[in-house]
Request: fold
Amino acid sequence: MQQLIAGVAAGSFLVGAVMFYKVGKWRGRSISKDKLKTQIEREQSQDAHNDAVEREPPVDIGDEVTVGVKEFRSHHSGDRQAVCKKEGFVIFVEDFPQGTEVGDSLDVTITSFGSNRTSAEAVPA
Reply:
């Protein structure tokens, strides 16, 4: 039910944003499509975070799970991390095998949770 409500909310926001863009363009005060896309992405990210805060993580410390790699990011420590998901829950994996690409699956062990238990960190199992 929460996913349905979140989907309707995101869809409503998107429709409103497109109308705002079109009316602004018609009135000669359009905003760039890139800026509009950034606003939409920021709103969707905030909605996903709010949903994550309200639910229990689908994993626990010590669990061995298989996750899919969605993207890579640079950690503040300078290390590269794989950004993975399990049932929509974000899991950051360090020390993943060389040659790992987006779309690959990794078997990992959950080692810790982030603040508010909205994400977790893991190492290859």
In short: The mean pLDDT is 79. The beta strands are 64-74, 80-86, 89-93, 105-113, 119-124. The two ends are 34 Å apart (CA to CA).
